[in-house]
């Protein structure tokens, strides 16, 4: 019996990106045998901004099928939907009350995303988003959370709140560690390598590779990625962010070190290098998409989600009971 728990989640967007895969899902897949593993679809987090209900349902199916296509085995990992386990909402509510306004206002994701909403008024969902994430993690006595670099601050808040609760009400929660991989923790937009590769890419999506992209289109996106005029394949995030980003993508997929990539491309141009990256990414997408078709079966996905929610709920309800007892609520 594996004792330590690994958990992560992804917001269902209808179209996961290479950034989601390399920054989080791949790290999870590579470790799923070593832990008692949970992966969920963060559909409650999705509704922090308005959603089309039918599209959201489809996006959830798409996300589960994509998890399986990326190598997650329901026989090894508990796969579930956040909203199926009601304890997430309840503990999220409780954890919000342990949190200072200042702590949530300081979150860079909140600052960044609320800017876009400021005219119409900022949703409270965006504000309390991190405390729901805290609940997601603490409910399962999680030891390790593989995520991309953009989630680091949320992970720090998780530890702070768990510690605060334990100090106030007695030892209730395990303090989780974050796992941010050294390579590929922040895949950048191919057209604007100063920004993160996002699901919503401003405009034409040329900067984002989606896992369901047509393979030839994805390759073209790599070939037309913004680079620089230094003309040397070298890892230097500050002065060569575009090339460094492509090196991270290549290295994360193949496992080859930056040094070895640099040595192979000494004296060679960017064209050849980009062709290799495009080939490697194209092959990855081909594999994922072939498996996706195999798993894109709603009956199968419903069964996986049902089984996963039943198993997850047993653990989540134990933790919630511990927390409500500590608070004097039962
Ligand atoms: P989300 O859906 O924005 O992203 C899912 C995961 O993908 C990582 N990621 C990236 N990594 C590297 N480069 C990129 N360009 C890139 N884009 C996204 C994210 O860091 C994340 O790990 N709040 C979370 C979902 C969530 C969660 C949780 C995660 C809810 N509760 C509990 C872990 C534990 C989110 O919005 O992820």
How would you portray this structure in words?
It is a single chain. The protein is mainly alpha-helical and 330 residues long. It folds into 2 domains: 5-185 and 297-327, HUPs (Rossmann fold, 3-Layer(aba) Sandwich); 201-292, Tyrosyl-Transfer RNA Synthetase (Orthogonal Bundle), CATH 1.10.240. Helix content is 54%, strand content 7%. The protein has 13 helices and 5 strands. It has helices at residues 18-31, 43-46, 53-69, 87-96, 101-105, 108-117, 124-138, 152-169, 215-223, 241-254, 258-264, 270-295, 298-327, and strands at residues 5-10, 36-41, 77-81, 144-146, 177-179. The chain has a 3-stranded parallel sheet. It has a two-stranded parallel sheet with strand order 4-5. Helix 1 links the parallel strand 1 and strand 2. Bound molecules: tryptophanyl-5'AMP (TYM). Tryptophanyl-5'AMP (TYM) binds at residues 8-11, 19-20, 23-24, 42, 45, 133, 136-137, 145, 147-148, 150-151, 185-187, 196-197.
């Amino acid at each position: 019996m594996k004792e330590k728990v690994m958990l992560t989640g992804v917001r269902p967007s209808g179209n996961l990106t290479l950034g989601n895969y390399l920054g989080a899902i791949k790290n999870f897949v590579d470790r799923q045998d070593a832990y008692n593993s949970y992966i969920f679809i963060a559909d409650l987090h999705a509704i922090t901004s308005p959603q089309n209900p039918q599209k959201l349902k489809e996006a959830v199916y798409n996300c589960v099928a994509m998890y399986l296509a990326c190598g997650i085995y329901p026989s090894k990992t508990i796969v579930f939907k956040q909203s199926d386990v009601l304890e997430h909402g309840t503990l999220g509510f409780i954890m919000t009350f342990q949190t200072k306004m200042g702590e949530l206002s300081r979150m860079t994701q909140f600052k960044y995303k609320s800017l876009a909403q400021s005219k119409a008024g900022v949703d409270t969902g965006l504000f309390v988003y991190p405390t729901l994430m805290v609940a997601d993690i603490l409910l399962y006595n999680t030891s390790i959370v593989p995520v991309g670099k953009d989630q680091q601050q949320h992970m720090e808040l998780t530890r702070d709140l768990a510690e605060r609760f334990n100090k106030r009400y007695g030892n209730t929660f395990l303090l989780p560690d974050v796992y941010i991989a050294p390579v590929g923790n922040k895949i950048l937009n191919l057209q604007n390598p100063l920004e993160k590769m996002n699901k919503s890419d401003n405009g034409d999506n040329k900067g984002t590779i989606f896992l369901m992209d047509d393979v030839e289109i994805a390759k073209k996106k790599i070939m037309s990625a913004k680079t620089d005029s230094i003309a040397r394949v070298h890892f230097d995030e500050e002065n060569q962010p575009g090339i460094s980003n492509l090196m991270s993508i290549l290295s994360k997929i193949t496992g080859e070190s930056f040094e070895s990539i640099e040595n192979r491309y000494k004296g060679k141009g960017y064209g050849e290098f980009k062709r290799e990256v495009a080939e490697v990414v194209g092959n990855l997408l081909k594999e994922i998409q072939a498996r996706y078709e195999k798993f894109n079966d709603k009956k199968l996905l419903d069964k996986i989600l049902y089984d996963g929610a039943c198993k997850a709920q047993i653990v989540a309800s134990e933790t919630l009971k511990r927390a409500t007892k500590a608070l004097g609520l039962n």
